[in-house]
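pinning this so it doesn't scroll away 📌
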Amino acid sequence: MVAIMTATPHTDAPPTERPVRQLLAASVGNAVEWYDWYAYTFLATYIAGAVFPKGANDSLVPLLSTFAVFAVGFFMRPVGGLLMGAIADRHGRRSALTVTILLMGGSSLLVGLTPTYAAVGVLSPVVLVLARLLQGLSVGGEFAASTTFLVESARPGRRGLFSSFQYVSTTAGQLLASGIATLLVDTLDEGRMDSWGWRVPFALGAVLSLVGFWIRQGAQETRSEEQRRAPRPGLLEGLRRHPRESLLICGITMGGTIAYYTWTSYLPTYAELNAGVAKSDALLAGTISLAFFGVLQPLGGLLSDRFGRRPLLLFFGLGFALLSVPLLHALRDSFAVLLLVQCAGMVLLTGFTSISAAVNAEVFPARVRAAGIGFPYSLTVAVFGGTAPYVGTLFKELGHAGAFPWYVAALCLGSSLVYLRLPETAHGELRR
C-alpha cells in the first residue's frame, strides 16, 4: 500500500498564472451543480406529496419513495464518474466540466416540470426517476472532473487549500438550496408550497446552470501537453491497472460520505421525524450550520498543507466513531440543541471534506486521474451516502430509529482503520 501512495516527480505544469480564475471556474459551476442536486433533499416532503400516492393513514411510504428516488440518482453517479472522467482524461478537464453543467441544468428543469401523480398517475414518478438519473450522471462526472481540475491548478504546497474549495462551492450550492427552501416555506402557505412552490428552485437551477456554463468557458485547461500527445486511456484502464488504488478510494470515502450526507442533508428530516422539530426550524438550523461549515473548509485545507492529510482524516474518523451516537441521541424539540449538534458535526466533518479532493487526486496518476477517482468514489457515495436518508427513515418506520447513529459510527470507524495505515502525501508531487 505504501508503494501506491509514494509520490513521483511529474512534468505537469499547473496553470498558476490565473489561480483565482481557475478557482472561480471550478467553484461557481460546482456550486450550481450541487444547488440543483440538494434542492431535491430539502424539498423532499413536498415532492413526496405531489409525485407519490399516499399510503394508508398518512404513513412514511411517500417519503420513503422520495428518498428511494434520491438513492437511485446516486447509483448513476459511478456511471457519470466513469464516463465524464474518461472525457476529462481523453479530451480535457474543461470539456468534461462543460458537459456536466449543461446536463445538470436540463435535468433540474425536468424535475421542476414533473407532473403530479393526481394528474398523470404512475408517469409522474417515472419522470422524476428519469430526471434524478440524469442528475446523478452529471454529479458523478462533476466530482471527477472538478476534483482533478482544482488540484492540478494548485501551486506547490497549496493542494489542500485548493482542494477545500470543492466543498466550499458544494456548500455554497447547498446553502443556496437550503436558503431558498427556507424562504419559500416561510413565505408561502402549505397549499401553495404543495401545488407550485416546490418547483421554483428547480427552474432557478436551470437558469443558474447557464451562468455556470458561461463562466467555465474562460477556464484554462490543466491537462498537460504530454498527456494530450499520449495515446488516450481506455474507459476502464484506471480500474484495470490500479485496482488497489480504487479500493483505497472506497475505504477513504466510506465513513466520510455517510457522515456528510447525514449531517448536511438528512439531519433536518431526521430531527423532524425523531425529535419533533418544526420543519421551518429544522431548515433554518441547517442553513446556519452550512454557512459555518463553508467557512471552515479553507482552514482545514491550509492545516493539511502544513501538518499533513492523515491527522485531519483521523480527527474526522475517530471523532465521528465516538460521537455520532451521543450527538444524534441528544436531539430534542429545540432549535438551539439541533443547531449545536449540527455545528459540532460540521467541525469534525471538516477533517474529511476539506482535503478529500487532494487525497483522492494524490492516489492516481495523471493519465487516468479523473476516471480513476470518479468511479470508486461515486460508487462508495452511492452505496453509503445516497442511501443514508432512506436507511434512516427505514429504521424509523421499523421502530428502530436509535440504530441509525450506530450505523454511522460503525462506518466511520471502518474508514479510520484505513486512515491509520495511509501514507502521508501532502508534501510530495502529484503522480505522473
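📌 and the second one:
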Amino acid sequence: MTSPVRLALLGCGTVGSDVVRLLHEQSADLAARIGAPLEIAGIAVRRLGRDRGNLPVDPALFTTDPLGLIKRDDVDVVVEVVGGIEPARTWLVEALRAGKSVVTANKALLAEDGATLHDAAAEGGADLYYEASVAGAIPLLRPLRESLHGDRINRVTGIVNGTTNFILSAMDATGAGFAEALEEATELGYAEADPTADVEGFDAAAKAAILASLAFHTRVTAADVHREGITEVTAADVASARAMGCTIKLLCIAARGVDAAGRETVSVRVHPAMIPLTHPLAGVGDAFNAVFVEAEAAGQLMFYGRGAGGAPTASAVLGDVVAVARNRLAGVHAASESAYADLLVRPMGEALTRYHISLDVADRPGVLEAVAGVFARHEVSIATVRQGPAGGGPDAELVIVTHVAPDAALAATVGELRGLDIVRSVTSVLRVEGGA
C-alpha cells in the first residue's frame, strides 16, 4: 500500500465521534477498498477538556485551532461535521482552494452558499462531497449526481426530516395533537430541546435546495424555497385526511415546469400536505426518510432509510471519504458542479397545487352558492364538497377539495372566504398532493 491518506476532522460531537469509531473499527477494510490506510491527522474541537467517552484516538490529536489544522502540509482531506454557516465556510473554502478535498454534512451552508464552495473546489482542483447533508445514510445525492446524470429528472418529492415525520406519524396513529406528539418526540430523543429548525421546516428547506440543485442542474438556495412548518397541523386535520383515505406528511417538492412566457422553470417548496395512502411515501413512518424521484427514462424511483443519527450519518461521511481518497490516489477529482441549466426558480404563487379547505359557515340557504361564487371568481375549480354539522352548534362545516390551480389563486380564494359574513372561520387549509 501507498502512504496513508490523512484526515482533518472538524467537530467531534455525535456524528464526529461515530466517524472516529467507524474509522477505527473498519480500518483494515477501508484501507483495502482505498488502496491506502486512512489516518486522522487531527481533530478540531471547541473545548479540549470535554469527556468524549472511550474514543479510540490519541488525545494529543485534539486541537482548538481548525484553520491551523487545515493548513498543515500533512492533511489531505478535510471532514467537516460542525455545521452552521461561519466559521465553517471560511474553513472549507481555505481547504478547497488549497487543493484539499472536503467531505461535509453541512446542509445549512450548502443550501445558503453552496456556490462559494463549488467555486473554491473548481479553483483548487479538489473534490467536494456531501452525501450526508440530506438524508443520512440513504444513498441519494450520488445517484442524482452520477447514476441519473444521463436522464432527465422531472420531479423530486421527499420526506427529509425525521422529527416531523415522527410527529405526524404519531398524530395519525394515536389521534394526539401537535403539542402531545412533539413532547413524545422530545422524550424519545427525536426532537431537539429547541425544535424550531425541524417543525418550522428550515431543515427540510435546506435539504430541498440541495436536492433541487442536483436534480435540475441549477443553483437553488434555501431562500428560493417556499417554506411552511407543521405547527398548525391539528388532530382534526389528521382525522379529515384519514376520512379521505390520506395521511399528512411534511413534503419537500421540487418540480420542473414552464411559465407563461414558455421558459422552463423549477419550483421548490416545503409544506405539510395530504397524500393518498396508496402513495409510496404514505407508508414512511416513525423517524424514517424517503425520497421519490420521477425521471423520464428511469421512471419512478424511491430511496428509503434512516435519514439522521450519528451512525447513519457517519456511514455516509465515510462513504464520501473513501471516494475522495481513491480519487486522490488516482490523481483525479470528480466532475465539478453541474449548474448549466440555470432554470428560472418559479415563485410559490405560480406553483400548481390543490387545496383542502375546511370552513365553519352559517347553516342557512344560499351559503354554498356564495362560497362557490368565490372559487369561480378566482378561476378555481371545486373537485368535491362535503357538508356536515360544525361541532354540534348552529353552524355547518364545509370541506372543499379543489382541482389543480395556481397557488396564488388558491390563496386569494381563501383570503376572500375569510372576509365573508357567512364564513365563521376558515378552520384548516392544507395542500393535497399525489392525486388524492
